[in-house]
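pls ignore typos typing on phone
adenosine-5'-triphosphate + seq
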Amino acid sequence: MIPGSNKDHPSFIRSFGYAIEGFVTAVKTERNIKVMLAMGVCAVICGLVLQIDLLSWCLVALCVGLVLFAELVNTAIEAVVDLATQEFQPLAKRAKDIAAASVYTLSITAAIVGIIVFARALGLV
Ligand SMILES: Nc1ncnc2c1ncn2[C@@H]1O[C@H](COP(=O)(O)OP(=O)(O)OP(=O)(O)O)[C@@H](O)[C@H]1O
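k done
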């Protein structure tokens, strides 16, 4: 919906409330998001312990945020596919498998960046 085109369009604050609701629902219902949040907390603890520099904090924040973003989008795609069909459908499989692949691609990339950042902080590279 185009913002402002309809007086019933939710306000910015209400839309933000829906987004928070979506985040809470995803965390409550999706095991993978809990795992990713736990890994994000671990990365922050490692950053604090190793006293990484500002640029490294930016990389850690970007990686954690992007992985969570990808998992949230993946969860939304799964919900839409389930809404469209409960039957076995090759296209449903393709959509879910590719959405899952996007999360794993980003997670592996984030893990590589994390290894480099923390190895550098430990003076290993
Ligand atoms: N309607 C469907 N038609 C065909 N294959 C499906 C369908 N629904 C699920 N699948 C297959 O089962 C796999 C698992 O689907 P599911 O919806 O259980 O997601 P999931 O792997 O449990 O995701 P998550 O762990 O993130 O919740 C999909 O990747 C897909 O290969």
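The chain has a mean pLDDT of 94. DSSP finds four helices and no strands in the chain. more later
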